[in-house]
C-alpha cells in the first residue's frame, strides 16, 4: 500500500474525509439558505425563478454542485465505513450504561440523525431538484425571457400540511446533527486552540439554530400566507 | 451498609459469562470500593467459592491497574480511579452493577480482569525517546518553557487505565494514544522520532481494533486524570503533518 492509500484508509484518514465533506456541506447549506431567502421577497417568485435558472445553468455553479453531490456521497460512505469499525470495536455491550452523564445525545446519535437527513434529502431532491432538471415544469415569462416556474412548484408543494410538517421536523434533526458536527469537524482537523476554539463553538451553536430555523420558516411561511 | 452486587462472572476468555448477584452486609462508608470487593471475596473464599477476579495494584490512584465499569460508568460515579472511589458514594440498600471494560481490543481474561496489553503494544510502536547511555545528564540541561513542560506533564499524567476506551461508545483509544503522542511531541527530547511516532502509534491503534473517535467527549469526561480533548486534536495534527513529510513511503 502506498502512503496515500494507507493514510486515507486509516481511521484518522477516514475521519478527515468526514470533516472535510461535512464542512463543505455546511458551506453548501449556507449558500442554499441564502438563495432560498428569495422566496420571502413577495415578487411572485421572479427573483427566485431567475436565481433557480442561474443555479442550474451557470458552469461555475455546476462544478460546485458536483462537489456537493460527491460530498454527500462520500460523507455517507465514510460514515458507514467508520460506523462498521466502531460497532465491531465493542462486540459485547454493557448491561448498564450512563452515557448521558458524559456526552451530548446528538454526539452519540450522529448516524441516526444522518440517516434521517439522508431520507429527507431523497424526498426533497425528488420533489424539487429532479423536477427542475428533468420534470415537466410550468413556464413563466419575465421581460420576454422564459423561465421554469419553480416558485409555483414550491408554492403548490407546501399547501400540503404533511409535507410542511415533515420539512419542519427534518430541520429539527438537521439542527441536532449540526450542533455536534460543526465544532467536531474542526476538532478532527486538529484545529483546537484557546485562541479560536471558543469562537468555533459559539458560531457552531448559532449556526445549528439559525440555518435550520430559516429553512423551516420557508414551508411554514408559504403554508400560512397562501 | 447493606448492598446487592450484580457482578460479571466469566471463567475464561472462551466462557460466555453472565451476571451473578451477591448480597453483602456490614460495609462501612469509609471503605474503598476495592476493600468492599475484598470483603466479598473473603466471604466467597470462606464458603469455598472462587473469589471474583479484578485488577488492582497500588490502590493510590497512580498505577492505572484498577478498572471496573460500575453502575454504567468507568471507575464508578466519581471522576477518579476505582481504588479511590469510596462507599460513601453509594447509599444503603443500593444495587451496584459491576462489569469489565468492554472492547474487542480488551478481551476479558477472567471475571472483571481484561487484557489491556493492546495499550502496551501502542506504546511499543513509538511511545519512547532514544537517549544516549552514559552519565546522568545535568538537570535543566535542555531548557523547556514552563508552560510547555506543564502541558506535556498534563498529557503524561495518563495512567493508561483504559477508562477512555471503556467510556467511548466506539471503544476508541484516541484519548490514550493522543496523550502518549502529545507528552513527547511537545518536548525537545521527543523530536527525533516525532513523525515516525505519530504514524506508528496510530497504525498500531488501528490494528488493535479500537474504534474511531466521534468527538463525543465521553473519554475526557470520565478520565480519572482529566486528560483533555485538545490532545486528540494535537494527535490529528501530528498525524496529518507526519504523513505528508515523513520519510516512510
List keywords for this structure.
heterodimer; A: 226 residues; mainly alpha; 3 helical TM bundles of succinate and fumarate reductases; two-stranded antiparallel sheet; 2 strands; globular; B: 249 residues; alpha+beta; Fumarate Reductase Iron-sulfur Protein, Chain B, domain 2; 2 domains; 7 strands; 11% strand
Structure description:
The complex is a heterodimer of chains A (226) and B (249). Chain A is mainly alpha-helical. Chain A contains 9 helices and 2 strands. In chain A, strands 1-2 form a two-stranded antiparallel ribbon. In chain A, strand 1 and strand 2 (145-148) form a beta hairpin. In chain A, helix 2 (11-36) crosses helix 4. The model of chain A has no long low-confidence stretch (mean pLDDT 96). By secondary structure, chain B is an alpha+beta fold. Chain B has 2 domains: 3-110, Beta-grasp domain (Ubiquitin-like (UB roll)); 116-243, Orthogonal Bundle (Fumarate Reductase Iron-sulfur Protein, Chain B, domain 2), CATH 1.10.1060. Chain B contains 8 helices and 7 strands; from the N terminus they run ββαβββββααααααα. Chain B has helices at residues 33-46, 117-126, 146-156, 163-167, 174-185, 194-207, 218-222, 230-243; strands at residues 3-9, 18-24, 69-70, 73-74, 95-99, 108-110, 113-114. In chain B, the strands form 2 sheets. A 5-stranded mixed beta sheet of chain B has the order 2-1-5-3-4. The model of chain B has no long low-confidence stretch (mean pLDDT 96). Chain A binds chain B through residues 2-3, 6-7, 10-12, 14-16, 82, 85-86, 88-99, 101-104, 107-108, 110, 180, 183-184, 187-193, and chain B through 6, 8, 19, 69, 71-73, 97, 99, 102-105, 167, 169-172, 202-203, 205-206, 209-218, 221-222, 229-230, 232-237, 239-240, 243, 248-249.
Amino acid at each position: 500500500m502506498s502512503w496515500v492509500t494507507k493514510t486515507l484508509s486509516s481511521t484518522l484518514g477516514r475521519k478527515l474525509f468526514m470533516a472535510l465533506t461535512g464542512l463543505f456541506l455546511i458551506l453548501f447549506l449556507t449558500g442554499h439558505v441564502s438563495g432560498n431567502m428569495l422566496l420571502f421577497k413577495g415578487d411572485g417568485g421572479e427573483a427566485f425563478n431567475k436565481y433557480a435558472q442561474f443555479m442550474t445553468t451557470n458552469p461555475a455553479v455546476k462544478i460546485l454542485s458536483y462537489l456537493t453531490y460527491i460530498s454527500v456521497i462520500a460523507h455517507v460512505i465514510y460514515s458507514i465505513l467508520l460506523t462498521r469499525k466502531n460497532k465491531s470495536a465493542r462486540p459485547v455491550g454493557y448491561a448498564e450504561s450512563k452515557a448521558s452523564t458524559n456526552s451530548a445525545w446528538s454526539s452519540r446519535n450522529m448516524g441516526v440523525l444522518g440517516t434521517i437527513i439522508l431520507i429527507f434529502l431523497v424526498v426533497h431532491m425528488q420533489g424539487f431538484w429532479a423536477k427542475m432538471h428533468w420534470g415537466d415544469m410550468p413556464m413563466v415569462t419575465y421581460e420576454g425571457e422564459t423561465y421554469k416556474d419553480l416558485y409555483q412548484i414550491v408554492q403548490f408543494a407546501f399547501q400540503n400540511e404533511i409535507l410542511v410538517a415533515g420539512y419542519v421536523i427534518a430541520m429539527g434533526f438537521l439542527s441536532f446533527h449540526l450542533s455536534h458536527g460543526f465544532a467536531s469537524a474542526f476538532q478532527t482537523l486538529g484545529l483546537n486552540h484557546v485562541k479560536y476554539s471558543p469562537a468555533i463553538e459559539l458560531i457552531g451553536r448559532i449556526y445549528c439554530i439559525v440555518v435550520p430555523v430559516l429553512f423551516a420558516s420557508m414551508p411554514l411561511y408559504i403554508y400560512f400566507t397562501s | 451498609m447493606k448492598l446487592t452486587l450484580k457482578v460479571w462472572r466469566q471463567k475464561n476468555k472462551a466462557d460466555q459469562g453472565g451476571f451473578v448477584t451477591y448480597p453483602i452486609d456490614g460495609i462501612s462508608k469509609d471503605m474503598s470500593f476495592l476493600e468492599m470487593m475484598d470483603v466479598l471475596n473473603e466471604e466467597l473464599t470462606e464458603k469455598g467459592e472462587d473469589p471474583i477476579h479484578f485488577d488492582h495494584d497500588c490502590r493510590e490512584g497512580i498505577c492505572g491497574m484498577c478498572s471496573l465499569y460500575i453502575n454504567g460508568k468507568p471507575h464508578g460515579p466519581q471522576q477518579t480511579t476505582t481504588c479511590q472511589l469510596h462507599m460513601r458514594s453509594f447509599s444503603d440498600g443500593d444495587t451496584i452493577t459491576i462489569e469489565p471494560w468492554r472492547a474487542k481490543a480488551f478481551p476479558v481474561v477472567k471475571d472483571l480482569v481484561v487484557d489491556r496489553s493492546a495499550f502496551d503494544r501502542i506504546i511499543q510502536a513509538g511511545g519512547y525517546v532514544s537517549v544516549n547511555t552514559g552519565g546522568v545528564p545535568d538537570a535543566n540541561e535542555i531548557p523547556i518553557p514552563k508552560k510547555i513542560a506543564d502541558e506535556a506533564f498534563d498529557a503524561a499524567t495518563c495512567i493508561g487505565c483504559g477508562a477512555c476506551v471503556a467510556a467511548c461508545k466506539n471503544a476508541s483509544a484516541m484519548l490514550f494514544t493522543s496523550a502518549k503522542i502529545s507528552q513527547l511531541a511537545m518536548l525537545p527530547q521527543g523530536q527525533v522520532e516525532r513523525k515516525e511516532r505519530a504514524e506508528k502509534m496510530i497504525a498500531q491503534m488501528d490494528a488493535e481494533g479500537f474504534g474511531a473517535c466521534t468527538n463525543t467527549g465521553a473519554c475526557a469526561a470520565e478520565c480519572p486524570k482529566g486528560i483533555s480533548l485538545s490532545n486528540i486534536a494535537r494527535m490529528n495534527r501530528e498525524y496529518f503533518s507526519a504523513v505528508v513529510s515523513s520519510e516512510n513511503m
